């Protein structure tokens, strides 16, 4: 238990956190920390004990030096913004410090997780699906691959993968790198996760997928897994799910959809058409810490076959924890790769309960409108060029003023990105599409307004023009 001095300390820090929330819009988005400055200002080594004043100093400095991801000028990642319920959920989760393995150890967390998984399953279109919360989209994609492996080579989780026939997985060349990591973690091998070329707009090319599977069969391999993407990391586009489903069905391959980024579009009647065919998949990754605005991490992996997770995760030696009295299937640890597990359901449950389905739908629709507005502004500009049609919240464009030599457009685009940080305290990432550098604007903050987007575009154009003038001198 905290001592009375520690309790006072907690109160003081809480007051500070509330003050932070009040002024978080003024806090710099990117405090431009340099590693040498941080290391020279702070002695981070741990040896003897410290007094509370010293600890408070480090708390202040930590907050000051952190990136302000709640600002509407933070466009850098696939998450942004502040969630009141998410924050409270995190605080209560830390305070109560329950663990998700058994109902006994996390009663409400277990029931909330079960409710959320049921709701998400229904939105995907699984009649009787089941799943678990995991520490992120990468981990969810790995679990999907492990389930696929078990389906393709029954009992390989016991005996290992020693067949001479290699298992082969297929993902698009624009899918997330976590599929490659899943490949080695699942014992498939990175080289056996084949990257299917995309069409000009970043969708998996189905004709090429079929040809690659065909070739693999001819070579005596065993194609077992296709990982499609709902919302690719750079362009935010959605693969053709129905077509992929029929290929997988015909060949008996596992069909996974990585909806880490775009899965939340299922909450919008207007935009859920992007996910048409999601119900045909075998498994689905969904990160609520991205488009649903929940603090990191908050991800679920959901499977159509409700028995498989338990089968894949069942090992001997667990009786010290699971005492065989789980008639109602409430000990969720039996379905998880983890033993101790944070309660990630509370923060999402609170936020969803607070907003309701309609509230979430409005917010997500608004995010799409923000991206469409940005697209419009780019199309109106004489010096900006959209690199890919906008399908969701990713707006990829580059700077290409006619007065500057085309060979310098890549360099100029990255220079504009860097100068946005310095001149406009705005953080946005850059990426590359077919060797063309672009600014990747992500409109995922629920607080964003049209004025924010206009301000962003104005800053981009002004900085781009300034740099273009310098370069064309
Ligand atoms: C499409 C996609 N899948 C998976 C991931 C990995 O998610 P996480 O960072 O939660 O592991 C990302 C991350 O951005 C992503 O964009």
Q: What does this molecule look like?
A:
The protein is 43% helix and 14% strand. It has 473 residues and is α/β, with parallel strands linked by helices. It has 3 domains: 4-66; 99-342, Type I PLP-dependent aspartate aminotransferase-like (Major domain) (Aspartate Aminotransferase, domain 2), CATH 3.40.640.10; 353-471, Aspartate Aminotransferase, domain 1 (Alpha-Beta Complex), CATH 3.90.1150. The strands form 2 sheets. Strands 2-8-7-6-5-3-4 form a 7-stranded mixed sheet, with helices on both faces. Strands 1-11-12-10-9 form a 5-stranded mixed sheet. Strand 9 and strand 10 (394-399) form a beta hairpin. Helix 12 packs across helix 14 (450-471). The protein is globular. The model has no long low-confidence stretch (mean pLDDT 96). Bound molecules: pyridoxal-5'-phosphate. Pyridoxal-5'-phosphate (PLP) binds at residues 78, 136-138, 176, 178, 229, 231-233, 258, 260-261, 287, 299.
């Amino acid at each position: 238990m905290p001592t009375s001095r520690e309790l006072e300390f907690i109160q003081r820090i809480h007051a500070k956190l509330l003050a932070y929330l009040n002024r978080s819009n003024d806090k710099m988005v990117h405090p431009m920390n340099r590693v040498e400055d941080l290391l020279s200002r702070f002695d981070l080594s741990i040896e003897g004990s410290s007094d509370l004043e010293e600890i408070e100093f480090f708390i202040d400095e930590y907050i000051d030096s952190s990136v302000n991801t709640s600002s509407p000028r933070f466009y850098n990642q696939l998450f942004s913004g502040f969630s009141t319920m998410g924050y409270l959920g995190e605080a209560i989760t830390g305070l109560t410090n329950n663990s998700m393995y058994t109902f006994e150890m996390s009663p409400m967390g277990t029931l909330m997780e079960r409710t959320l998984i049921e709701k998400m399953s229904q939105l995907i279109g699984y009649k009787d699906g089941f799943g678990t919360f995991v520490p992120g989209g990468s981990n969810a994609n790995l679990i999907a691959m492990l389930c696929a492996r078990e389906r393709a080579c029954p009992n390989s989780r016991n005996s290992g993968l020693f067949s001479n026939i290699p298992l082969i997985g297929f993902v698009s060349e624009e899918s997330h790198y976590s599929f490659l990591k899943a490949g080695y973690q699942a014992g498939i091998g990175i080289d056996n996760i084949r990257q299917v070329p995309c069409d000009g707009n970043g969708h998996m090319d189905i004709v090429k997928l079929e040809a690659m599977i065909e070739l693999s069969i001819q070579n005596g391999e065993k194609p077992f897994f296709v990982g499609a993407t709902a919302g690719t990391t750079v362009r935010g586009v959605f693969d053709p799910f129905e077509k992929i489903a029929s290929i997988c069905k015909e060949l008996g391959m596992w069909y996974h959809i990585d909806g880490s980024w775009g899965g939340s579009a299922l909450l919008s009647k207007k935009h859920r058409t992007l996910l048409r065919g999601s119900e045909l998949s075998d498994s689905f990754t969904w990160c609520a810490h991205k488009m649903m605005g929940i603090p990191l991490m908050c991800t679920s992996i959901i499977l159509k076959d409700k028995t498989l997770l338990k089968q894949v995760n069942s090992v001997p030696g667990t009786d010290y924890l699971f005492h065989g009295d789980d008639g109602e299937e409430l000990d969720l640890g039996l379905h998880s790769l983890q033993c101790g597990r944070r309660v990630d359901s509370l923060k999402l449950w609170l936020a969803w309960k607070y907003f309701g389905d309609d509230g979430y739908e409005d917010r997500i629709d608004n995010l799409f409108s923000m991206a469409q507005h940005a697209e419009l502004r780019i199309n109106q500009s004489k010096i900006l060029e959209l690199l890919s049609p906008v399908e969701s919240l990713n707006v990829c464009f580059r700077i290409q003023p006619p007065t500057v030599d085309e060979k310098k457009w890549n360099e100029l685009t990255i220079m504009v990105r860097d100068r946005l940080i310095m001149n406009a305290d705005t953080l946005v990432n850059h990426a590359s599409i077919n060797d063309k550098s672009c600014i990747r604007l992500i409109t995922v903050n629920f607080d964003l307004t049209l004025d924010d987007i206009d301000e962003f575009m104005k800053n981009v154009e002004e900085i781009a023009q300034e740099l273009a003038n310098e370069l064309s001198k």
